[in-house]
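2024-03-11 09:14:02 INFO receiving multi-entity request
2024-03-11 09:14:02 INFO entity count = two
2024-03-11 09:14:03 INFO echoing inputs for audit
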Amino acid sequence: METKEIGVIPSFTVTLMVRRFDPETDSEPKWQDFDVTMFGTDRVLDALHKIKWELDGSLTFRRSCAHGVCGSDAMRINGRNRLACKTLIKDLDITQPIYVEPIKGLKVEKDLVVDMEPFYQAYRDVKPFLIASDTPAAERLQSPEDRARFDDTTKCILCAACTTSCPVFWTDNQYFGPAAIVNAHRFIFDSRDEAAEVRLDILNDKEGVWRCRTTFNCTEACPRGIEVTKAIAEVKQAVLRGRR
Amino acid sequence: MSVVIEQPNQPRSRKNAQWEKRAWIFMRISGAVLLVMILGHLMVNLVLPERGVKSIDFAFVAGKWADPFWQVYDGIMLWLALIHGTNGMRTLVNDYAEREWVRKTLNIALWSVAAILLILGTLVITTFDPCIDPDVENYLPGVCKP
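2024-03-11 09:21:47 INFO inference complete, emitting structure
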C-alpha cells in the first residue's frame, strides 16, 4: 500500500521569468528564468523572496509591508500591473512561466526597481493636501454624505500601477497620469477643502485630464479597486463646470 | 565651486490649456451631431431613393444642391466631419509621436490636408453649377436656361 505522509502541504514547481537589468554591466534588460517550489498560499512576492534569499541575492525589487498597504511592489506580472504581494501564484497559469517585469513608462534603475520621481512629481503638482483658510479650534466636521463623495479616491496607496498601465503615460510622461488625478479628486470633492478651483485649473492643461482616452487600463490595474477612470471623468466634468 | 540644483518643483508649461478643453467639448458635440446627420445623409442617399445607391449620379447631386437646405446640410457635415476627424488624428499623433519634430511635421501635414479639403469642399458646395453637364436637362427640366 502506498504510504502517504500525513501533514505534508502540497507544493508545486513554477518557473518565473524575471526581467533583469544591471546598469553597471548591462546595456539592455534581459530575461532570466528561475524554478522555485511554492505552496498554494504563496504570492509572487514570496517567489521573489525565495529567489533573492536562496538562488540569486542580486535580484533587486521594492517591497515594504508585503500586505498590499504600502504600495511598494507594483510590477507587471504576466502583462498586467499588480502588487506582487497581493497576487497568489496559484491564481496564475502555473503550467506556463510567470513573467515579472518592472512597471512601464518609468526609467528602470535596476531589475524591478524604477525611478518613481516623475510619478511623485505629478502627485505633488496637484497639491495633495488640505487647503483651508480658517484655523479651527476643533476638528473640521463633515457629514457622512459629504465624506462619501470622495471615499473611493481616499484608498490610493500611490503604487503607480494605474499610471504605468496608461498607454498615454507610456509615450508622454509629462501627462499627470491617473494616480495624480485620483489624488486631486480626493481633495477637489472634499467639502472641507477650499482650493478645488486651483486644482481644477492645474488639471485643465494640455497634459491634464484631457489627455485621458478612457481606455480603463487604470481601473483594471488598481489593486485597491478604485474606479480610476470614473474619478477622472468626474474631474473632467468639474473642470467644465469650473467648480467641484 | 557652486553646485547647480535643478529646479525641484518646475512648473509645467501652461500652453494651450483652454484649447484642449475646447477641443474635447467640440469632439463630443460634433460627434453627437454627426451621428444624426450622417444617418440622415445615408437615409436620403441610399435608403429612400427607389434604386438605392444606383440612383446617385450627377443629376441626383445637382438636384440636391439646387436646394439651399442640402447645401447647408452638406456644408455643416463637411466641416464637422473633417475637423472632428483631423482632431482625432491630432490626438493620435500627440499620443504616439515621441519626437517633437515628428509630431510637429505630422500635425502640420494633417491640418494642411484638412484645410485644403475644407476649402475645396466648400467651394464645390457653394459654387456648384449643374449646367456644366448638358444631360442634366433630361433629369431636371428647366434648370439650365440657355
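2024-03-11 09:21:48 INFO post-check: Residues 71 and 125 of chain B are 6 Å apart (CA to CA).
2024-03-11 09:21:48 INFO post-check: The interface with chain A takes residues 9, 12-21, 23-25, 91, 94-96, 98 of chain B (CB under 8 Å).
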